[in-house]
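W.,

You were right to be curious about this one. When I first looked at the sequence I had no strong expectations either way, so I just let the prediction run and decided to look at it fresh. Below is the sequence, 201 residues in total, followed by the output.
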Amino acid sequence: MRHNKKGNHLGRTASHRKAMLANMAVSLIKHKRIKTTVAKAKALRTYVEPLITKSKSDTTHSRRTVFASLKDKHAVTELFREVSVKVAERPGGYTRILKTGTRLGDSAEMCIIELVDYNTTYTSEQKAEKPAAKRTRRGKAKASDDAQPATKPKAPEAAKAKEEPKAEEAETPKAEVKDEETKAAESANENEADTKEDVEK
């Protein structure tokens, strides 16, 4: 009897099962998504997610621990350099299982298991949904009402600031007009003086 034994043996011996899960984990880390059966995917999820969590602390000890499970130095390098940076802010749940139907030969349930942060279609939709947050009925409405009077006195100052540049802009053309008038008056005086000299001559 298998009371309280939750692990799926997958019809394999212990050594065969460990080797298979290690190979599947290496493939998942390298290719970011693999196609397999649902039973294997669920077993792989419990195997690979602790390794991804371990990769967040890039120390010699954690690298050796992960290498003991994966037995592939290229996969360990990619896990610590690329995958750990990508999932740094995620507190868990690094993989996603998408069911794809049954296999033709033996009607086994098939699925795709993938790393969540490498699927751009799902991540872009989540980012688009984040700004549209629900507004609660209590608390936030009062806070917004309290905040409104504080912003109201600032409105006249802003209006004054907007009006001041307009006044300066209005003044500058007047000054230019005065300069032109004075120049015209000076030129007229010079002409009168010239005409007087000519008359005297």
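Here's what jumped out at me. The two ends are 139 Å apart (CA to CA). And, maybe more interesting for your project: The chain has a mean pLDDT of 80.

Coffee later to discuss?

I.
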